[in-house]
Every structure is written in C-alpha cells, then in structure tokens.
Amino acid sequence: MTEAILRQIINYAHRADPYPLYEELRKTPVYHDADGPFVLSRYYDIQSLLHDPRISSDARNLKTPATANPLAAEADDETALPPSFLRLDPPEHDRLRRMTNRPFGPPHSPRRVHEMHGELKDIVSGLIDGIDNPDRIDLVDQFSYPFPVTVICRLLGVPREDEARFHSWADTIAASLDPDPGADTDERAKVSHNARTELGMYLAGLIEERRKKPGADMLSQLSTAGGPDGVMTTMEVLSTAALLLIAGHETTVNLITNGMLTLLRNPDVLERLRKDPNLAVPVVEELLRFEPPVQLVPQRTTLTDIEVRGVTIPKGASLWLVLAAGNRDPDRFEDPDRFDPDRGDIQHLGFGSGIHSCFGAPLARLEAQLALSELARRLENPRLLEDPPPYRQNAVLRGPRHLPIACDGIRP
Amino acid sequence: MSVDGSLDRLKREGRIVVVGASLAGLRAAETLREKGFAGSLTMIGDEPYEPYDRPPLSKQVLLGRATADRTGLPRLRAVDAQWRLGVPATGLDMAARRVRLADGDEVEYDRLLIATGVRARPWPQEDEAELDGVFVLRTRDDAEALERSLAQGPRRVLVIGAGFTGSEIASACRERGIAVTVAERADAPLVGALGGVVGEVAAELQRKHGVDLRCGVMVTRLEGDSAGHVRAAHFSDGSTVEADVVIVSLGAQRNTEWLAGSGLGAGLRGIACDAGCRAFDIRGIVTDDIYVAGDVARSPHPLFGYQFLSLEHWGNAVAQAETAAHNMLSESADRRPHIWVPAFWSSQFGVNIKSVGVPSMGTEILIAQGSRSEHRFTGVYGYQGRVIGAVTFDQTKWLQFYQQLIETTAPFPPAFPTVDRRPEGQQPIPADFPDPSVPTHGPTVTLSGYAPDDRRLTFTPARH
Ligand SMILES: Cc1cc2nc3c(=O)[nH]c(=O)nc-3n(C[C@H](O)[C@H](O)[C@H](O)COP(=O)(O)OP(=O)(O)OC[C@H]3O[C@@H](n4cnc5c(N)ncnc54)[C@H](O)[C@@H]3O)c2cc1C
Ligand code: HEM
Fold first, then answer.
1. Does residue A42 sit within a domain?
2. pTM value surpassing 0.90
3. Which of A63, A217, A362, B294 could form a disulfide with B24 if both were Cys (CB 3.0 to 4.6 A apart)?
4. Is A368 exposed, middle or buried (0-12, 13-18, 19+ CB in 10 A)?
5. pLDDT at position A204, please?
6. Cβ of B347 under 8 Å from any chain A Cβ?
7. Does B458 reside within a domain?
8. Given a cut of 60, is residue B273 above it in pLDDT?
9. Chain A residues touching chain B at CB-CB below 8 Å
10. CATH number of the structural domain spanning residue A91
11. Is residue B1 part of a domain?
C-alpha cells in the first residue's frame, strides 16, 4: 500500500486534498522506496533536519543528479545564471543572503517592509475596485496573481511603465512551472525559455542603469551598496532578483487563494475577520500551517550517513521534507486537521526553518494579511461557486488554478 | 490527591512567600497561580520597583534606546499577591517558618521560595568605590545613573573586567562614540566563560571597534580629584589611564547574607538545592518547604555528572522558577527535575553570541563551522571524549543541533562533515581556559563541586 504513496501524492486526482495521504505517510516517518528520495513527514524530524549542518541544499552533493524530479517543479532553466542562495550552502549562502538582506530587513533596513504598507494597501484597493462583475469573480486571475508581481516590481524598482511587460514574463514563467499535461511541452519550454531570456536581459539593462543612477529601490542597492561583504556581481544580482521573483510569486498567490478558500469554508472566522482586521495576523499564521503554499522541500541532501529514528540515510541521498505533513502532525499540534486561528501556539513549518527559512516572510505575511482583511471587509456576502475549485498541476507549490466566487456587491 | 489532603489545603488556603521580586520570583508566582494556587502569596523585594528585566540594562538602556524605567517584565498572567517592595528580608526562622523583614515585620509561610539573585561585586577599596563616576551595573538605578553620565559625553570610560557585562558596556560606549579602555586580568575578554580560543576573537572584535583593550593587567588603584570625582586608574604594569567614568564589572556575589545563621545551606556560592529545587540545610538534608530558583541557586545537573551548577542565565531563572513552583504544589511522585540545558546569549560589537551547555567544562574546542577570523563561527567544546558545550558567533541557527549533541552525550570530536567546515575545523585544539584555581570574574556558569554544602565555603558567620 505505502509503495504507491508518493505516486499518489503526485497524482493530480489527490491535489484538492492530499492530507489523508500525508497522514498515511507519517506512519512511516522515514519513508524510502527503491531509488526514490527519503521522505520525512513528522514535525520534529523535519524541524531538526532543517537545522542539521550535515544536510546540504547544494545539488552538487547529490549522489545521483536530480534529473526530472517530478515535484521539484522549480524550473532548472536557470542554467545561464549561477545558483541562487536558495541552492547554496554556507558560507556562500550566508554571504549572498546577508547582502540581499542589507536593503531589505533589519539591522540595516528595519523599515523597508513596514514602509511598503501604504503602497500594498493601494495595490489591494486598486485590484478590488477593478472587480466589475460580482456574480462571477476568479479570485486567482483578478486578484491573487497580479498582486505579488506588482509588489516585487515595486520592491525591485521596476519602472511603472514596464510593469505590464514584467507581468507577462512572470505569467509565462509561472505557467511553465505548472505544465498542463495536454500541452505541447516542447513549445511550452521554448516560450518559457524565451520569457526567461527576455526577463534576464531586461533586468540586466535595468541593473546597468541603476549602477549609473541609483535610486532607493532594492535593485539599485543590490547593485551598488558595498557593505563588509563587498558588492554583488551583475550575475549575482540577476540570479538574486530572479529568486525573489520566483520564490515570492506562486507562493504568495497560493497563500492568498488558499486563505480565501479556507475562510469561505469557515464562515464564522471570515465574519470575525470582517469585523476585526487584526485577526488577520493569527489567521495568516494558521493558514501557513493548515494549507502551506510550499507543501514540501525537495532539495536537500546528506553530506554523510545520518540516522533518523533508527533508519540510516546514506550520504548523497535525496531528502524530501514534507512541510505540509509536519504541520498536521498530531504529536505537535492538537487537533491538527482543524483550522483554528485561536490556537495559541502556531509554530508552523510553512516558511521552512533554519538558515534557509523564508527570506521574504515579513513581506509575505504583510501581503497576505492586507489582502485577506481587505477582501473580508469589502466583499459583501461572498460565497464559493465551486468546491473544491480546480487545482494547479504542481504538487509542491500547491494551490487552486482558479477560485470562482460570487458576492452581492463590493463595499467602498 | 495527597493521603491526608494537606496538599489540597495548601493549594486552597496555604501561604506562599517569595523572597526576591525579580525575574525568578515573578515567573514562579505566575506559575503558582496558573497551577491553581488560591492561597495567599507574598512577594518580598528589596528594590522599590515592580519586577523588571536586566539584560536590556547593559544593551538598549546604555545606548539610550530605552529608558531604565521601561524595562518592566511583561506579565504573563495576574498574580494577585501582596507586594512588599523596598523592604529587604533580613532573616529566616526555619523552625517557626517565618521570614523577618527589615521593617520589623514577620511573614509566616507554608512554602518559601528564595530567589534573591546576585548583586554586583563592588570595587574592593571602599573609599575608591565611593568616588563620583565609579559605577557597577546590576540594577535599574545603576543603569539610569550610568546612562546619565554617558550622555554627558565623558572623555574616557574605563571598564574593569571583560566578562559579558563589561564587554557589553564597552560595546555600548563605542557605539555612542565614547573612548573606552577595558582592563582585563586574563589574556582576553570572555575567557572565563568561553576560553582563550574564543576569547581571542572577542579581543579582536573589541580592538576592531576601537576599544583600548589591555589584557593581563589589573587595576591597582583608582584616583580621585579634589572634588571627589574619579580622574585616573593605575595599573599593575605601572601605567595610568585617565578616565572620568569607571565601571567595575568584576562579577557577582550571591545575596545570601540574610540567611546567615538560619541553618539553611546558604553561603558565598549560593544556596544548594536538589534537582527538584528544594534547598538543603547546613547538614546536607533536603528541606521540604523551602525552594530556591534563579541566580542564587546551585543545583546538581544529570548531564554534567551531577555537579552543582550556578547559572547566571536569564533562561535558567525562568525554567527553574517554573519547576520550583510546580514542585511546591506537587506530591513527590509528580515532581519534576530542573534539567534545563544551560543557554546564554549576549550581543556586543554587532555580534550575536550564544552558548549552550557548559563550555567552561571543555578542555578542547573544534571550530566546526565558519571561521574565527570572519567572526562568524560555531565552536564545539569537548570534555572527556564527549560534547559538553557549544558557542556561536552570528550563527545562532545551528546551535539547536549542537544542543542535541550535548543532550545525547555525543562523542567529541564530532566525526562527521558539515556544511561550512574550514581548514581550521579539521582538528580540535585546546580550549584554553584559565586555571580554575585562579578566580576569574566572568564565568556565567560555575561548577561548584559535588557536595550540597561545601562546608569550607558555606558556613558564613553571622555578621549582624
Ligand atoms: C546588566 C545585565 C545584563 C544581563 N544580560 C544577560 C543576557 O544577555 N543573557 C542572559 O542569559 N542573562 C543576562 N543577565 C542575567 C540575568 O539578568 C539574570 O540571570 C536574572 O536576572 C536572574 O534572575 P533572578 O530573579 O534569579 O535574580 P535577580 O534578577 O538578581 O533578582 C533578585 C532580586 O532579589 C532581590 N533581593 C536580594 N536580596 C534580597 C533580600 N534579602 N530581600 C528581598 N529582596 C532581595 C534583589 O534586589 C533582586 O531584585 C544579565 C544581567 C545583568 C545585570
Ligand atoms: C506565502 C508566501 C511564501 C511562502 C509560503 C514561502 C515559503 C518558503 C519556504 C518554505 C522556503 C524554504 C525553502 C528551503 O528551505 O529550501 C522559502 C525560502 C525563500 N523564500 Fe519564501 N515563501 C513565501 C514568500 C516569499 C516572498 C514574498 C519572497 C521574496 C520577497 C520569498 C523569498 C524567499 C527566498 C529568497 C528564499 C530562500 C531563502 C534561503 O535559501 O536562504 N518568499 N520560502
């Protein structure tokens, strides 16, 4: 039975509700099948492996190169760019992450995210104002999708007049991460490759400009700011910018969409949120536990033989850390399958943990809090038109492809 | 519940007295109420303030980023107690179960928690200690006075003693652009707590930030001007440093004098208690109604060969207070041992330092990750072939892993590769702790032997 479980998880038929499969998976805490990866699904095991210095994020340490990893849908077309810090170990990881953090977070830029508050709110308001037909709204296409791309544009400092082009590249790349089984894959790959190349060239040009005439945006600061770690090379800035775009896009789309879906399935919480926007803080944390946008981290490998619960995982093995299964581990969370923003202790794995824990977390939280509290406040009597909604193919970055909803009207 | 119902009665209408109204005292009181204690609770504290937090005193407060009166500890729940603040306890009558107060009052208890902590060791020459401009740093008042004098822009500050507190003070001064000299008897800062190998990095950090660091010297004399303000310090190497502010940072003394003659096992090294936080009397017999927690306690730890540990650590005070409170209200079978793994943090010169376990027990150190010259590394301490402690400089996220190695008494040196292993991390080297028989003034973990009452030291003759 367990033999097929990974295949079942990948199987699209289970996309809407993989949680019973995860429960099954947790019964074999270190799951391994033939040539497949070692799969970890218990909260404490995942948490401790994410803090284990014998574990590497660098694919060069894999015994067998990760070819066509069915879940690692993150495109490997980054070939032209050096690996981003997501795929590097210390000290390179630390150096690049520190340099990226300089213009983004404390201690050097403690106010950056906070200061985006007004701008984020305007974007959210603009998108909700733009909803013309309250009888049929696709929350994904009309709201969740455009929002994070616009945010990344503003963060990086993409000029307003170029935002539309940026959106279309991002859409193409995102679509390639989620291949439709019926589509012409070669054609898809070509389109996506072109989009990447164009985006790369566009960013390279922008970096060139910002080197000459720096502004207050992140791209300027990444290309020019010289801290104790020096300045990034153009290639490093490029791969970092691409990382911010990709890591911060689909994930945030899913968080907002999963969020609205979950709220519509829990109308009492939705009603409370409508009355009290501050509830957005625990709601978003509980969402990151209950429906994490990144279901599993598929790119870790062992630098040496390690033992977990009596099982030896050999050096160079591929590890999958199933965050979404750990988040529902009854050893860690009481009544784990209940969506309950009032649980006092929501130390979820939704953003990972350890040195690779989500770099964009403060921004992602703010985006989701604003989006959900505004949607709750402004949509009058919202309801789901389809439950479950149609999901995307991707089992790692799991979320609805469309979320058809209706409401009685839009409040001002 | 208990056979004779006495525990129920204690919970319902008992009298619990807490002496020492700071971190440990407050957290214990909160835990008692949380566990359903409905009787009377008296909090006795000699400071006039509600419980406040000390770590910010040498950090944010000295930087002028927070004021000393804003360091009140967050309340986790209401405690509904009688607060006797500004009144020291002066004596204990164990037989009559009574605490004597300085104002002549006496308070009776069914259970007593002692959490009187430590105080700053003063400069030994009293007349010199009384000069204007000479400070210690332990309390809110100390911090306020020191901050005020730093704000006036002294020409030079002298810090005597480069333990954690002294180093943090020097760091704050440099951040405010004030010239600082640090005098340290050992060969480097922090050696008492972390050893010479790591102390060297601390020394480099200080010098890089412009501290005039002088190691291997002692301050022999403080000199005042005609107005009674300190103006200079004389060193054992014959040199002199002119300074208008001097901070004496020579470690701590346990607040146990008030127990002299009481029959409790209390002395210079603190109050010995068992792993369940129950105090020993001077005969080495454990009491059943007197509990100890926080900086003043010394208790045996199973992970460290049941040696008695004295920990001046924030996290220890909280954990021990919770355990003491739990045990006060429990039958013997339900009691819990206090087996908190020591953990400490400090921030200085822009670096986050954290340690777990007992580095000072270590004889060897392996720089398992990162590099000392980059001031970012993880050092692992070994003792008799096992991992006994670890320290990180700006690598906090790895510490949890090494804590697990300590808890599982993993072999030292760790035999596996890790990310970020550098050439310097191939071999362990001697950790270079000073001779333990020479007293140092920085270690925040002190191993104080095996005996619950060290007779030579704990019999402090009554002085008043
Ligand atoms: C400047 C400074 C910085 C620090 N930084 C850190 C840090 O970064 N990390 C860390 O882990 N730890 C740090 N510490 C240590 C931490 O603050 C202590 O471990 C903690 O305060 C211990 O709490 P406690 O309640 O046991 O003792 P204390 O806080 O010392 O409290 C004891 C209380 O009892 C009172 N008292 C004493 N005698 C009597 C009596 N006879 N009658 C009535 N009351 C009495 C005292 O006045 C005091 O209020 C720092 C300490 C200081 C001073
Ligand atoms: C809801 C939204 C998001 C979720 C659920 C999420 C989740 C995650 C997770 C699980 C990781 C860890 C990957 C690993 O351990 O290998 C990660 C890393 C990362 N995330 Fe996010 N993320 C979100 C939004 C964002 C945003 C908005 C940004 C950018 C602004 C961002 C940037 C990054 C980066 C750069 C990393 C790599 C960190 C490193 O390797 O050190 N993320 N994210």
1. no
2. yes
3. B294
4. buried
5. 92
6. no
7. no
8. yes
9. 48, 51-56, 89-91, 94, 303-304, 306, 354-355
10. 1.10.630.10
11. no
Quote the CA–CA distance of B29 and B50 in Å, as a whole number: 13
Residue B457: band (very low, low, confident or very high) from pLDDT cuts 50, 70, 90 = very low
* pLDDT score recorded for residue A245: 86
Q: Which domain holds residue B385?
A: 343-444
Q: Which residues of B touch A304 (CB under 8 A)?
A: 416-417
Domain boundary among B302, B334, B366: B334
Which of A46, A50, A54 is the best mutation test for B, with the most CBs of B within 10 A?
A54
CATH number, position B374 = 3.30.390.30
Written as one letter, the residue type at A91 is P
Distance A193 CA to ligand 2 centre (A): 23
Question: Is residue B319 classed exposed, middle or buried when 0-12, 13-18 and 19+ CB atoms within 10 A define those classes?
Answer: buried
Residue range A316-349, pLDDT digits in tens: 999 999 999 999 999 999 999 999 999 989 999 9
The CATH number given to whatever domain includes residue B49 is 3.50.50.60
Cα(B60) to centroid(ligand 1), Å:
17
Report whether residue B52 contacts ligand 1, using a CB cutoff of 6 Å: no
Instruction: Report if residue A13 sits inside a domain.
Output: no
Q: Which residues of chain B have a CB within 8 Å of the CB of A354? A: 397
Mean pLDDT of B105-110: 98
Task: Give me the half-sphere count of Cα atoms (radius 13 Å) on the Cβ side of residue B172.
Answer: 29
Of B371, B376, B398, the CB nearest to A53: B398
The total domain count for chain A is 1
pLDDT at A248 exceeding the cut of 90: no
CB B426 within 8 A of CB B410: no
Residues B132 and B219 in one domain: yes
Structural tokens at position A303: 């630098």
Residue nearest to atom 6 of ligand 2 (CA): A351
The domain of A406 spans: 71-288+330-410
CA of A308 to nearest chain B CA: how many angstroms apart? 13
Which protein residue has the closest C-alpha to ligand 1 atom 8? B346
Burial of A34 (0-12, 13-18, 19+ CB in 10 A): exposed
**Overall domain count for chain B:** 3
Mean pLDDT of B386-393: 97
Of B371, B404, B420, which has the smallest distance from its Cβ to A48's Cβ? B404
Sign of CA dihedral A172, A178, A183, A187: positive
Query: Does residue B275 have a pLDDT over 70?
Result: yes
**Is the model's pLDDT at A119 over the cut of 60?**
yes
Name which residue leads in pLDDT, B110 or A71. Answer: B110
In angstroms, what separates the C-alpha of B27 from chain A's closest C-alpha? 19
State the alpha helices, DSSP H only, in A266-309: 267-275, 280-290
Nearest to B50 by CA among B78, B73, B19, B76: B73
Residue of B378, B401, B420 lying closest to A89 (CB–CB): B420
Mean pLDDT confidence for A355-380? 97
Q: How far is CA B35 from CA B317, B318, B324, B337, in A?
A: 18, 16, 12, 17
Residue B457 within any structural domain of the chain: no
**Residues A80-106: tens digit of each pLDDT:** 567 899 999 999 999 999 999 999 999
pLDDT of residue B128: 98
**Residue for token pair 């209390």:** B266
Contact B379/A at CB under 8 A = no
Does residue A191 contact residue A407 with C-beta atoms inside 8 Å?
A: no
Question: What number of C-beta contacts closer than 8 Å exist between A and B?
Answer: 44
| Contact status of B369 with chain A (Cβ, < 8 Å) | yes
